[in-house]
Amino acid sequence: MAATLVGRPPRAAMPPTADRGLARRRQRRRPPPRTLAPPSATPSSPPGAGGTSFPPYEVVSKTEDYDLRLYASHFAVECEYVRRDEGFEKVGSYASGANEAGARFAESQPVVMHFPPGTAAAVSSPSSPSSEPKVMSLHIGPRLSEKRSGKEKESSEETPPPTPPLPMREGVRLAARGGELVAAARVPAQYATPEATLEARDALALALERDGLRLCERDARGAFRLAQYGALFQLEERVNEVQLRVEL
């Protein structure tokens, strides 16, 4: 005996006008397609998404090996350091109110570590440390003003004064940065270990020499910078890049 397939009876055909109306209603309920921004090793300058502020710069040129940027003048807060976590805590406290005015400032990136000449020799031979200290700096973003809305406070950006208030933490100082041409290249390793950072620094120096660009005197003697993009006090993956200053 042949098997009989039992199922729901076929739905009655809908008039063409009703079919088109149903299609339009379904289309209105469908969420719009999400646009994903392409990943970027170096966020564009200021301010970024979510209120994050970056040092102001213009990209002069790009190659497969590095970006060449012209940084405009800006203020930063900086300190000498030995351990990175201690440096993070010091420079990060400024934006949270550790300044003469007790003012709060927008989150900013990147944290920049300034390594003096002789760093490579100190890494290869720990018994011969560099004679100069390492310095950590952080761009000062827009000042935040607090406005009360009922029982809640809302923060908004306001035009910063000509000179930011002085830091209150011992060993932390204001600094004028920018006004320079900088070559930046991403550290390809997941973590910016001393070896991976120095390897990236040497590769960047070779690429600049190949392209006929000369380093400034101090960087030609071995100084360089390591910039880290990412939240200061969160254990998340950061984007690291080495920076060398180029003669104008």
Neighbour order of strands in the largest sheet: 1-2-10-12-11-5-6-3-9
Please bin the fraction of helical residues: 10-25%
CATH superfamily: Regulatory factor, effector binding domain
Number of separate domains: 1
Describe this structure in words.
The protein is of the alpha+beta class and 248 residues long. It has a single domain (49-246), classed as Multidrug-efflux Transporter 1 Regulator Bmrr, Chain A. The chain contains 5 helices and 12 strands. It has helices spanning 16-29, 84-95, 119-124, 194-210, 217-220, and strands spanning 57-62, 67-71, 74-81, 104-105, 111-115, 134-139, 143-149, 152-158, 172-177, 180-186, 224-229, 239-246. It is globular and about 50 Å long. The model is unreliable at 1-14, 26-49 and 147-152 (pLDDT under 50).
List the helices and strands and how they pair.
Layout: H1 16-29, E1 57-62, E2 67-71, E3 74-81, H2 84-95, E4 104-105, E5 111-115, H3 119-124, E6 134-139, E7 143-149, E8 152-158, E9 172-177, E10 180-186, H4 194-210, H5 217-220, E11 224-229, E12 239-246
Antiparallel strand pairs: 1-2, 2-10, 3-6, 3-9, 4-7, 5-6, 5-11, 7-8, 10-12, 11-12
Question: What characteristics describe this protein?
Answer:
248 residues; globular; Multidrug-efflux Transporter 1 Regulator Bmrr, Chain A; three-stranded antiparallel sheet; 29% strand; nine-stranded antiparallel sheet; single chain; 21% helix; alpha+beta
